[in-house]
Amino acid sequence: MSYVAELVSDVSYKIGHATKRVVLRAGRRFAQANEIRPGFFDQYPQFFETSETTAFANRLNERHRAIIDANRDAISGKRVLDIASHDGRWSFAALKAGAAHITGLEAREHLIKAATENLRDFGSDRFQFIQGDAYKALAQLEPGSIDTIMCLGFFYHVTEHMTLLSLIERLKPQHIIIDTGVAADARSVVVWQVENHEFESDAFKTANVQKAVLAGVPSKPALDMMLTSLGWKPRYYDWKNVGIRNWAHIDDYQEDYRVTLRVDANR
Fold first, then answer.
1. Residue 175, SS3?
2. 183-241 pLDDT, tens digit each
3. Which fold has domain 40-179+225-264?
4. CA torsion sign, 217 to 220 to 221 to 226?
5. Do the Cβ atoms of 103 and 142 come closer than 8 Å?
6. β-pairing, 79-83 with 101-106?
7. Taking the model in full, what pTM does it have?
8. Which residues contact residue 262 at a Cβ distance below 8 angstroms, ignoring those fewer than 6 apart?
9. Are the beta carbons of 217 and 144 closer than 8 angstroms?
10. What is the pLDDT of residues 94-129, one digit of tens each?
11. How far lies 102's CA from each of 80, 123, 132, 223, in Å?
12. For residues 9 and 13, what is the distance between their CA atoms, to the nearest angstrom?
């Protein structure tokens, strides 16, 4: 029995057996709800400091299970492209999972610098980071040069979703791993929003003529429609049945407005 349950048990003896049973059940639920599973990023605390974006241990560790652990066969020995590579956290995780090489695409200069320093600090040289517009960079890569593409936390910050997917399809990857926010709507829709380009977690302003930076958040049915239009069959990670007891900082996955999925492209 946990410390919390023991403490509740001692108190409840003084207020009757019936109350004891109720309070003990509540105590066990409280103890379970606060169980945080240790994970990959606990070994690399530097990644809690090199970004302003959702650098919470529980979130990073559970996302690692969904993005990396669940897809090791699509990463180990593969040439991996990390779209919107941020501070290099997922590029590094992919390298640790056995990726042969990582190419990261990132628009923000300070994140390119942080990613390069992070991976160099950990002794890896099987990587390169490219700064610039993701669409332009994707268009310049050679088809067949990438085995696996990770598109993590990026898809719902763009406006031209099908253009992005078409550029990905052009490269003919074997596997695609996507982690994205989705709109809570049963219809096939895209919900538009204005984002603050000064925030690391928001869309990046790529054109000086832009007065506001727009982003389109697809509903899950819309996302499915986009993927299947290219002949892809998405397989979703089952967030609710992987033993998570503490949903701190990952409630968006629990409440189904963020998803993780994998596509094995048809050859």
1. strand
2. 999 999 999 999 765 554 544 446 554 567 889 999 999 999 999 999 999 999 999 99
3. Rossmann fold (3.40.50)
4. positive
5. no
6. parallel
7. 0.83
8. 70, 71, 74, 175, 176, 177, 178, 234, 235, 237
9. no
10. 999 999 999 999 988 988 999 999 898 888 889 999
11. 5, 14, 16, 26
12. 6
Single-letter code of the amino acid located at 87: D
CATH 3.40.50.150 residue ranges for the chain = 40-179+225-264
Identity of the amino acid at 18: A
What is the 3-class SS of 7-53, one letter each residue? HHHHHHHHHCHHHHHHHHHHHHHHHHHCCCCCCHHHHCHHHHCCCCC
Contacts of 13 (CB under 8 A, 6+ apart): 20
pLDDT of residue 125: 85
The residue type of 157 is: H
CA 142, CA 139: separation in Å to the nearest integer?
Answer: 8
Could you give the CA distance from residue 52 to residue 175 in angstroms, rounded to a whole number?
A: 29
Confirm if 105 and 83 have CB atoms less than 8 A apart: yes
Half-sphere exposure at residue 170, Cβ-oriented, CA atoms within 13 angstroms: 14
Reading the block at residue 191, the tokens are 């919900």
